[in-house]
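Q: Structure tokens for this one, please.
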Amino acid sequence: MSTSPTMGGSDSGAVSGAAGGATAANNNSQLETCDETLGTLSVFEDTSLPWWQDYRRNYPKLGSTLPVVRLMIQQSNCFVVVERGRAMSAMNTERQLMQAGQLRGGSNIGGGQMVAADYTLSPSVLFAEKTQGGKAIAGALFGTLGSIVGGGFSKNEASTSLLLVDNRSGVQVSSSTGSAANHDFSLFGGMLAGGAAGGGGGFANTPEGKMLVTAFADSFNQMVQALKVYKAQEVEGGLGKGGRLTVGGPDDPTPQATDASPMVTTSTTTTAVYVDPQPSSVTVSSKRSYDFAVDEYDERAFNNYYTMLKNAVPVFTALSSFDKDNPPSLPNGSSMNWDGMLAILMSQIDTHRIELQAWPLEARRQAWAKMGPRIEQHTQLFERNRAIALERQDLPDSIRSQLSAIQLVTKSSLFPEGI
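A: Here is the predicted structure, written as tokens:
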């Protein structure tokens, strides 16, 4: 049974409410505001940078950072936000319809109407992590009682950055970072594990998104505070005209540019809006493109392999006492399918082994320095139990074949080039 949903019944975090023109409703009073608007601004989220891939992998349900950043900016009244994102395609559609003569007379959609963006703001997530440690602290202070009563806590942290660039000159006008942190408490964690501890663990239900929103709000507040006392950077002689840090010395000055110098251009992709004053036809072009990212390395390959190796040891212990007439039963009462289980185990070990061996040499060295001795100890247990199982005369050939084919990671196989 559940209660009926209530409008506005959720805590949206540091950025909430709405904005309409220069006014804001139900916004966070801690958000910095401006009495006078500083200019027009577009928000650009660079999804080609590494932070975006990490962000999407770790928080796939949060989506783009743009909506909350744009709401925050408009509520502050520091900038007028102009559209340069996906909604541009809808704006272009209206202009295409106008060109085709499909819109009513007096619709007043045409050239020379769009507002230029004076500045571009680029948000990014520097990091968002959960760090453990409360239970260890409680145990150190109060012994066993501390670990039982104190339970534990973890600290959630996030850090974000904002970069503001002048679109006409390309000069960075402002930059800022912000952060947010809170603690998840699990009271009486040792005694009341599970549902009974729900009252103390309420902070653990806070969405990761609220942490990032708060960090972005802090970044924006820091930026606005700096912009309120803004002073333009000046260079003697003018910006981009040689600078103060010369090269070559007085006897070897930089030669003056000539008109024959070729122009160096940078390839960019822009969304263009063109309005034909006398449209005669409509052209529709269709493009199919693929935009995806592939991680070159599986960062959890070492941990996954180590976990699988540890879990495989007790499986092989059970296999060493194999009895084909009385196979062990699963919790649902059915007999264990050793062939299927070994096939899954072998494929998982092989997958993690292949990914681990693809790591760069320096990464493999660092991982082996930390985990190598434990890997070798669990490998010895694995090989001992495998040898015991293979000695059984009544072991079916299919199981014997799969058991013999499992390849483990060894120091020599992980470092064929030498460590």
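A few notes: The beta strands are 18-20, 23-25, 40-43, 80-81, 119-132, 152-166, 172-186. The chain has ten helices and seven strands.
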